[in-house]
Amino acid sequence: MTNQTRDNVSALVSRMRDRKPLVHCITNYVAMNISANVLLAIGASPAMIHAPEEAGEFASIADALLVNIGTVSPHWFNGMSVAAKAANAAGKPWVFDPVAHFATAYRREATAQLMTLAPTIIRGNASEIIALAGASGGGRGVDSGDSVEQAKEAARTLARRYCTVISVSGEHDFVTDGKREAIIIGGSAWMPSVTALGCSLSATTAAFAAIAEKNFFCAAIAALACFAEAGEKAAERAEGAGTFAIAFLDALSTLDSSAPAQRIASS
Ligand SMILES: Nc1ncnc2c1ncn2[C@@H]1O[C@H](COP(=O)(O)OP(=O)(O)OP(=O)(O)O)[C@@H](O)[C@H]1O
Ligand SMILES: Cc1ncsc1CCO
Ligand SMILES: [Mg+2]
């Protein structure tokens, strides 16, 4: 099983540069620039389009959609809803990043409504995944207060309840579709010190979903494996959080397609 997953992930990483999928991102103000640069570095084509007047039309043209509620407000929420509905109608995958969804009543309500639109993959940190399953965790804002280990059971519950793929990031990462499971090891302790890397990971997850021919379990793993590999390479050269961010983009844009799969520990 692990070897099959590794082969699938290596194939996805090489396919990215050939296919150059168009990834429609409705993300937060903090994440937009780094997410677009990360998508370009892995070989995808980003477009940040959020107006409700055009988000639905664009979602049906794009190869995949990302919805991230990091700085959500009512007008943006309308854009997210019409885009997710259009992606579903056009048979395009969409990834949901429920940033700090537990923090306020407004976010909880926005998240509940987006969850009814059946996201293809949900990518969050441990605190976000624990709270999404209805348990209480240690999160207060956008950073996780819980470990991935503590979020595993919540991830399994969510995957089965919503028939979706759950991708949990942290010091090591965990992916499940309710039946299969994978752990991804690597990255760097500098990663949580660079804002919106998790948001960029969700955008990368959407890019892999676009080319995964419905193997969304492997798409989620591929994105994490690329981040684990590039994060570790970048840490070898970084002098701090600033140079790490630059070195991370360099490492992503020069990835050897067979290297990320070696970061998959089990499945
Ligand atoms: N201590 C760590 N060691 C190695 N890698 C890490 C560590 N913490 C996070 N990462 C990696 O950083 C990336 C972002 O994950 P993280 O869990 O920090 O997302 P997040 O909390 O949603 O981030 P943000 O909200 O700032 O975008 C993932 O690829 C994850 O594997
Ligand atoms: C810092 C921050 N605030 C809202 S979204 C975001 C980016 C990391 O999730
Ligand atoms: Mg996040």
Automatic annotation (TrEMBL):
CDD domains: THZ_kinase. Its cofactor is Mg(2+). InterPro entries: Hyethyz_kinase, Ribokinase-like. ATP binds at residues 123, 169. Keywords: ATP-binding, Kinase, Magnesium, Metal-binding, Nucleotide-binding, Thiamine biosynthesis, Transferase. Gene3D superfamilies: 3.40.1190.20. Substrate binds at residues 48, 196. This is Hydroxyethylthiazole kinase. One of its GO terms (molecular function) is hydroxyethylthiazole kinase activity. It catalyses: 5-(2-hydroxyethyl)-4-methylthiazole + ATP = 4-methyl-5-(2-phosphooxyethyl)-thiazole + ADP + H(+). The gene is thiM. Its EC number is 2.7.1.50. Catalyzes the phosphorylation of the hydroxyl group of 4-methyl-5-beta-hydroxyethylthiazole (THZ). GO terms for biological process: thiamine biosynthetic process; thiamine diphosphate biosynthetic process. Pathway: Cofactor biosynthesis; thiamine diphosphate biosynthesis; 4-methyl-5-(2-phosphoethyl)-thiazole from 5-(2-hydroxyethyl)-4-methylthiazole: step 1/1.
